[in-house]
Input
Amino acid sequence: MRQVCSTFAVLMAGCSPALSPPDLTDIEPAWGYNGEETTVTIRGDGLIPGVRLVASDPSSASVDAQFTAALVQEGSLTPLEGVSLDTYGALSARVPRGIVPGLYSVQVIAPGGEQDTLANAFTVTDTRADHLAIQLDARAYDVNETVIVEISLLDPDDDVVALDLPVVVEFSSETNAAGVTIDEGGLIDQLELDDRVAVSGRLDPDGTGWVAFTSAIPDNLWVTVTPAETDSPVRDDAAFVPFTPGELDRVRIDLPSEPYQAVAGEPFPVVLTLRDEFGNLLDDQAATVYLREACGGNNNLPTVDIVGGRGSTLLEVHRATDVSPSSLCPANALTAYGGATGSSQEFQVSPAEVEELTLLVAGGQSAEVTAGEPELNLIVQASDPYGNLAHDYQRALHFTDDLGGLDSDNPGQGQALCRPWNNGLLSCDIAMNRAAAQVVITADDGLGVSGRSSPVLVNPGPPTSMDAASRASQPQAGQSYSVAVRVLDAWGNDADVDPSGPDRLEVIDPADSTSCAYSRLEASGAHLLDCATTHAAEAITLLVEMPSHNLSTTTGRVDILNGPLDSVILGAPVEVTAGASFTISAEALDAYGNPYATGFRDLDISDTTGTLSIATVTLDGAGTASESVSITGAADPTVITVSSGGQEFGSVDVVVVADSVDHFDVVMQRPWAWVGEATAVTIVAQDGYDNTVADYSDEVTITSSRGLFVSERVSSFDAGQADVELTWDTPGISDRVRIADDGGVTGSSTAIDALDGECASPPTAGLLLDGLSETASCIFSGQASVTADFSTSAAGAADISHFHLSDSVGGFTRTASSSTTLSFDTAGLYRPELVVVDDDACGVVADAVVWVNEKGYPAGAITIGVADPTRTAGGAPSDADTTVSFAAVDCAGDPAANVDLYLRTDLGEFASGLTATGSGLAVTLNSAGEGSVMWSAQNTDHDGTATISAGVLSGAAFGADTLTVEGDNTRPEVAWIDPSGVTDALVDEVTIGFTEPMDDVDYDSRVALSGPDGAVTVSTSLSAARTELTVTPDHTLDGAVGGFLIELSSDVRDDSGNRMAGRWGAGVADFTSRFGAVGDEGLSVSACTPSVAHFTPDGDDGAAEEADDVDLAVSATATPSYWVLEVFDGNGDRVRTKHSAASASSTTLTWSGRADNGVIVPAGTYTVSVSTVDIYDNLSTGCEVEVVILERYSATR
Output
């Protein structure tokens, strides 16, 4: 057997490996108090246990981890207790109490006898002192503020140890604590150290002490306290103490030197710094200061922004100082004010060299001369730039003016005759040749000293010549451009002429396409003419004349470019076939008919179907283009348009006809049909581009892909579309409607389920939205979502196959899942519908309601409360008025606070509590989502049921309630009578219609009928609705033999007891009407124009569709006896009839949207008819218009 030695100490026969001794690194803690045991951890490498193994018995191996440790000092050894191997790199042990204080080495012996010693590694003390601690206010201190540093000697538990430990307190910073001053007496035997900013001393016997200090400068100081003995185990402590400058006291102004001599007008630097009261720089502060000088020579000294406590500027002073007794400025100084104040030292200012000549013109600002004629007297004053005279100045001067009309060194360019200098003054006579409103004379000594005069008016001489030039070399046609004309005197000055008056300028244009008008005189002296040329040409020349002075000139060449693009003439075939290529041409012109030869070349081109094959057409150099294109969308017409930047420039209409039929599109209204019920199907013949083939008229065969209905032939195509109704006679799932003609063209619908709604054992349908049959949902991030749950649906005789879900706004979902998500992006009311389909094609339906709105706005049913359920029409307020209250919640069920509800009533009116919004009357809910208004029947004469509705404009919330109105006060009227007026027909009965139900009484005695032969015996009958009375004579009447008169007694009453209004008047009267051989005025209604096509009778009258009623401007061929306004609903039923006495052949009739019973009719389309009644009771043919009554909100979708 082979023997192996491991890295452990192996003790067995024949194996004695030599192990490396432990390598100790540290002991923690490195000190201990001899009054108590101290647990320590000894760390190092090679702390490996031994292993004992008997070669004959491998299972007898054991680990030997018996390490020993001791403190060693000068040959003496103190064993440590409880030595234990924690890891292969650490031992734990206990230092026993009672050891003599001192510095000890640490010895460790491994189980195999290997050992290592950590020299001078552990200190035994006779005190528990562990560390020093500093206490002070942790804040920033002002300079010179005293800081007291409290020092404590603490044990490991942070308790104070009573020991007068010698310590050193040291101060350090980046400035070497240069500003620190340490107070005396804080420590026992306190002494300042010479080699650093520090003090030494002892703590008080109770283990505490203090040191007081301050800093005279801003500084970031560290205060460190350490034991005075360098080998002390007591740990030190440190604290950060920042000193900041004091408050702003002044700004210090430093001149370049002390003393300082400045020169007038020469800039010199000035440094400004912000200081506290001790003179410390405030480098964290800023200020803006203004400077002024004591002598006041320069009032424009700079403003200085001081940032970070420092600022600088360059400035100059102008007034020289003078130390003479009478001087006003013996010395100068700078003063700062504003964000901080301060002053500089005084300084002197010397005058500058003479740098300027002052030229004084005789006559001052009113000096005036004529070019080349009278002379001007000029005084020259030599001074420095700040007004100091130079009495010894004697230099010769060179005179010029700023127009070149004066040069004293150049004969012929004006003249300057000067006298000798006299104490800094020079007198000269000046003549100038150039005219201007302001001519300035300059004098120059040739050595850099010069001066300028005040302006002199130099008038021009008489005109002698003229020149003209166009300001634009290439103006566009029709674009205004300027022609500048200058009229000059002999010296080249612009002469004084009046082209807008007697000195008119005439422009002669041989091309006769240019017009000019005088514009203005420029400051340069040029007269501007505003000209425009409409004919584009490469060159034109204008002749300009001034007859008053017999002057003429011509302009140079002017190129006229075409103007901006104005129109594009497009050419294309009248008719093309979808998808076929054709040529389109373009001719671009400006507004004057010039070819668009210059300018942008690319034009956008498009058509109304959006299928044009190109998007850009590029013009050539002549402004034309030609492209081969195609259009796949059929339309009559398709408008092809060219544009650029959104501006349209031309268009052409092209009839694009569909290509030959390619397929059929089969459109279903929904993806299911009910067996035995007709289902609308639309068949559209389409070409290969999905255009309707309008001329398709062949016969097609309609079949069911699963044979679920009887095939049929259809030939009823109109404009390429056939609308048919199919009836499935056999239920089935996933059927398709297939179309085919005899030429092989086919088409197919999407899958449709033919469902049996009369199954013996159908499934049951259950639809819950977010767990409810009616719920509300909030719009978040533009969308509201609800979970549509079908899980409550149950199978009948067959298993459920799948579900159809309609979102009520045109979206359909087919799914086998028991739930899905519906999303809505618009506030409103939605009624999703679920169809449950089983394997036998049985179908059942369920629906649910979801109200959708933004959070905080009403959603769902609105609660309405009517205080008094019965009110009296036309009564006093106590009988006619009632309070109506409202309450609404939002989509989360919280009160819809501080929002508007819109209200309407179809009978009566709201008396108070509402606001007209322009979109309806509204009540503002309070913070609890509640509100109330006053409803009144004071102004109505009708009885009936009043419906009060409340909602929001989106339809996301709605509620309605009713109240009963009693006490009808409206007189009934005859709405119509047949026959009436001229007729030659045989009459067996006369029918009279009333505006409201009548009292059921004996009408035989209340009706009288007479004719050519006298009285006619009649019998009467009242309809079940009591709104029509039939009068039957005892024999047939012949309308051709004469006139007949029917009379209805005023004793006739409605079912409320109101007597009849007679012949459409306000008072009680008999009603009479004639028919038969009577006269005829031949009237007709020639116009009936409504004021609006849509109106909303909600009590909030406004413009257009917000109007509360519709006005009809009507006119007839002559003045009738009565105007008749009749209103019929979508079913042709009469809802309103009103006769109005006429006084002219035209008038305005109004319908307020109310029926004859006074109730506002429901929303919908109504036919309004206006006719006339003449003196013979002939009713003319009505003039009809359609109007639409709107409702802003409802409970239906």
Observations:
- The first strand starts at residue 9 and ends at 11.
